[in-house]
Amino acid sequence: MKTQADIAVVKGRSLWSEARRRFYKNIAAMLGLIVLILVSLFAFFGQYIAQFPIDEIDFNVIGQVEQEGGPSIKNGHYFGTDDLGRDLFARVVQGTQVSLIVGFVGAFIAVAMGTLYGAIAGYAGGRTDNIMMRVVDILMAIPSMFVIILLLVMFGRSMAMLFIGVGMLSWLDMSRIVRGQTLSIKNKEYIHAAQAMGVSDVKIITRHILPNLWGIVAVYATLLIPLMILTESFISFIGLGVQEPLTSWGALISEGAGTMQYGTLWQLTFPLFFFVITISAFYFVGDGLRDALDPKER
Amino acid sequence: MALLSVDQLNVRFDTSDGVVHAVRGLSFEVNASEVLAIVGESGSGKSQSAFAIMGLLASNGNATGSVQFKGDELLNKPTDYLNRIRATGIAMVFQDALAALNPYMRIADQMTEVLVYHFGLSQREALAQSIAMLDAVRIPDAKNRIRLFPHEFSGGMQQRVMIAMALLCKPALLIADEPTTALDVTVQAEIMDLLAEVRREMNMSMILITHDLGVVAGYSDTVMVLYAGQVVESAPVQTLFDSPGHPYTIGLLNSILRLDTEDNALYAIPGTPPNLLLRQSGCPFVERCEFAIERCHSENPALNEYRLENVTRSRACHVEINS
Amino acid sequence: MTKPLLEVKNLCVDYDIRNEHALPWKSPQTLQAVKEVSFTLGAGETLGIVGESGSGKSTLARAIVQLEKATGSILWGGDTELIGLSRQQMLPFRSQIQFVFQDPFASLNPRLTVGQIIEEPLTVHQPQLSRTQRRERVRSMMHRVSLLPNQINRYPHEFSGGQCQRIGIARALIVEPRLLICDEPVSALDVSIQAQIINLLNSLQKEMGLAMLFIAHDLSVVKHISDRVMVMYLGKVMEMADCSVLYKQPSHPYTQALISAVPLPDPQQERSKKRILLLGDMPSPLSPPSGCVFRTRCQYATTECATRTPQLQSTGNSSEHSVSCHFPAVSLS
What we know:
The complex is a heterotrimer of chains A (298), B (323) and C (333). With 298 residues, chain A is mostly helical. Chain A has 12 helices and no strands. In chain A, 73% of the residues lie in helices and 0% in strands. Chain A is elongated, with a radius of gyration of 24 Å. Helices cover 33% and strands 24% of the residues of chain B. In chain B, the strands form 2 sheets. Chain B has an 8-stranded mixed β-sheet, sandwiched between helices. In chain B, strands 2-1-4-5 form a 4-stranded antiparallel β-sheet, covered by helices on one side. The longest helix of chain B is centred in the middle third of the chain and has 18 residues, at 185-202. Chain B is globular, with a radius of gyration of 21 Å.
């Protein structure tokens, strides 16, 4: 006698769904994820709460920022104002937006280029691999920060240039990691099996190699995003980042740090707070992903 | 008094999928200069019981019961206490010799380290003893080859090096965990002969863990068959091969690939071992057993000791079997 | 006489080995992994290939499907030369020659479901089939290898080693090949499961009229499945004979050593048995011994063995029994 359950097709649990289950059990990683969601909500919906646009100067506080510009619910400046009397809440919302976008887009460029380049080099092997990786070595020898600064100075300060500069230089590490991983996957028997049955190279890369790379790529990407944010912040901090009235965490921290001695400490603490919790949250999530995707490594 | 006596050893692992009961109620004794073979498939708990005895369980593992070596309790004791017993009392040989040796250290350094640590020998004495031990496991040109790194040896030679390291402190008991599974047949025969020989010379006891009943025949005194974490049968080796008393042992014996029969038909035990995450009420072997009766589904048989033709043996089965 | 399905003549596979520390313009060393191997295989026949690791048996298998660059001749079906075919030209033959691998887990892509794994050869070789037709074929194939068809959407890690090997066999047989190459298909499995897989392969072979190349490092595994057995050592054929002849009258000292190394599952016999031990280690394939490659480990070797290379010759007691040794069957007397 067969029960209904025997006949019905059993649904399998993929490695991904198992990893998801392990991730959900990781408290630190889940906390990080929640923080990231909250920060993102803040970044993209905060502007509807803000009482002032980012570039409007509040003439009530100008000139007496230290006394009048502090954080208060009453006058609508929840985070206070900056040195010029502009609403800091609106500016932090905007800065978060820019920093997150730079982080995600930069990491995306790095992941896309690095994965493709590394997978091709690793799968092709031999001389092709050798030449492709030596190119990476040479590019790595160029001081990246110097190149980004040069790009921004030569072609002017723009978001696009920032993305290109940051993304173009961070795919190098990614391609090395992916290449190493591809080399080890290439020697697995299921790749031999696919070759023996005549599956084309493109199919082997897209169907058998890339899906098995996603794990390490995902982990590395989550660690790359904060790195992108840090890079952008540094560039903004030295005054080469996004242009006024747009702003970013780095620019805000830079301004806040500049006015510390006047007692307007909130101008530093609010952007710094968001900066620190977001970066830590990304690292927590990255660690959690790594543990979830590779349970043996504990 | 027995050299090693294990009483009601239970090993369980807490995994994200649930609790795995890897070993359940394992009890046995090893006497001086006796060879006990523990036979079972992967997942039968044979390696985990050895790890539990050595105090080497993974961090999510949990052992209860009692393991006594020369009367001293070993289970769940602190590492520095166990370290004194490891090597000098009980040593272990693993399946994958290359993984068990440190790839960045010369054999000489790995061997002398043990002697210096345990006996406080001088470097010179330790080296001399190490070379003597490599000679004993028949590594040619031991004097020079002791300066090599592990990967510079062939698979069989690596296994010899590991055996030499295990024997350095002249342990009273050697646990060999699948010592030949990763090796070619010709090398397997050499290593098994070597183990038997040094065991005799040093008058050592041995626990031989393997999945292959064929290997056991020539090299053990007593055989204990494990299935799904439980002992299903235990008997002197000749008795077990002549008149196996448990359906699983019978199946295992019949499915050995052998050269000495004309008949090419091969018996296979149907099905696969049970999932240890799901605890069932009946006999763990019931799904694959051709002798199973109603009672086997509801009641897990206990291991019963009995005497047959003047031989004491034990088995865990509800059904009377005449083989 | 009908044409043999596969005729291999003087097959050689060379690797160029580059020393990591060598200067780039230095010419690489040559490693001969397979040396002048010849055999024929009829339809529905099984040839067992036995040898230790490093004997070149897996390389030989990979060379037959052009995954290694080889020289010599591989004649398929009596009329098609496989060596030198382009990838495109080789494609139709790939569906007729299928592989089963050693490691049941590593040979299955962990990200694909069982259904996707088994149907992959169909998507390559019979692209005209619709998705439902493919699924139907997969289900019936799963049934034939005793897997429950309702598990079609499960992933490899949810199966045991034996079941994974069945998945690998289903994948190989779904395109109805004429030759199945099994590269140590049972050596990673437990004893009770080994017997299951061997019986399964035996019955599928009869049902489908498959020819098989069955590679193993252990003579006992091969005995239960082969019609003929070929023993390899350091890339060369040492002895080839009908299965029944080889086990009764092994003529090459290496074959004798392999046979005596198999443990007997009987305590008394095993303890009283006299074992033929091999001397030392297998020499490096980069610098094989002169003359007979086996002489360094052979207890009967003479000076002649070092100077003259023995050829594979018929022993005379049967036309199908050939051995590559100057003093065959010495130890039998």
